[in-house]
């Protein structure tokens, strides 16, 4: 296994690789992925130095968790920190976020992953009111006391939700959309998290693949791919698909971004490198549907820091093409 830079994931006190692996794809919510192909992706990530997997109980209705559990049982030598998420298997009402439900959801995830104690459980983009509920965070503290979970965090849609969660003394980490097409978290969330000792997990780092530079306006995705069925927020928050950017606009902006990649890099690795070097970021979690993608994403950890001119160009591109679409919404 290769060695990758490790950073402490906030109040968990645990080290994780700066490039992790998001496993939404392995639940087959981006099109079909065979079990053996999914295992190959996990193995390629670990062999490339990844020590952090992010999953959720709704990814493939538990399939992603089960595949990770199977893989880690077969690879006891793999030192992987697994973060999962809970809360999206019920109607999104604040009254559903109660201790009895938490225990039931945890029991299911622990069985899927084959562990007694979950490394990290994150509230999975719950209703905004949940972040202000003392009862919710008391329940999460109870789960820690019962050793069902070692730590808890949140996955958020908005910067305001992130700041509310960061103020909670037990919040270990915040997972938030961050990429060159979503810069708003840089202004308040990352500084607040750093001051509080809260880890930052950057999700949707390639804007659902836009920042790979591989798509054109004529690209067609499968019917069971969320980039088809959730393009306008039909199934869940629009920000999870293409970072909320209109597809046609995103393709044009991605072509400009691709020109910023150096001759020895790629647009995707440049985007991941940009995230890694933002102050306060702990880990970035790109997904992968093939072993080659997993290895290519991990290679971003070896990229040299982007020069100041590139950072300025990213900001200029965002201000000119993206800000008006997404900044006010999130």
For the biggest β-sheet, the strand order reads 3-4-5-6-7-8-9-10
Radius of gyration: 18 Å
Distance between the termini: 39 Å
Overall, the morphology is: globular
**Estimated helix fraction:** 25-40%
Output the number of helix runs: 11
In sequence order, what are the helices and strands, one letter per element?
A: EEEHEHEHEHEHEHEHHHEHH
Structural class: alpha/beta
* Total beta-strand segments: 10
Report strand %: 5-15%
Assembly classification = single chain
Largest sheet: 8 strands, parallel
Average pLDDT metric: 94
Low-confidence stretches: none
What brief labels describe this structure?
alpha/beta; globular; single chain; 330 residues; two-stranded antiparallel sheet; 12% strand; 10 strands
Break the fold down into its secondary structure elements and pairings:
Blueprint: E1 6-8, E2 15-17, E3 21-22, H1 35-47, E4 52-54, H2 63-74, E5 81-86, H3 99-113, E6 120-124, H4 134-145, E7 152-155, H5 159-166, E8 171-177, H6 189-196, E9 199-203, H7 226-229, H8 247-258, H9 267-276, E10 283-284, H10 291-298, H11 308-326
Parallel strand pairs: 3-4, 4-5, 5-6, 6-7, 7-8, 8-9, 9-10
Antiparallel strand pairs: 1-2
Helix pairs in contact: 1-10, 2-3, 5-6, 8-11
